[in-house]
Design brief:
Mean pLDDT: 83
Distance between the termini: 47 Å
Helix content: 55-70%
Number of helices: 2
Order of helices and strands: HH
Structural class: mainly alpha
Low-confidence stretches: none
Number of strands: 0
Length: 87
Amino acid sequence: MLRHEFRPGRAVAGLVMLGLAAGYAADAAGGWEATWTFFLPLFLGGLWLAATVTWAAYMLRRRREAKKASAENSGAPASTSGSHAIR
């Protein structure tokens, strides 16, 4: 059994941040020469991608839960026979 549900948006954001950290580390070590303006669009694009993935996962989860709830409520209500009358 899973301990928690998978959050793909957080995974994407983490991978983007790891990539940016690797780029900054390579720049600081002198192995790669890049200005800070190169990293800004990557950062904002990564945040946008993570938000899009989070929204898509939310919509899929919501649809799956609605489908599951409608399948559970397909039977007749419990009180249709009138057996719960007050005496």
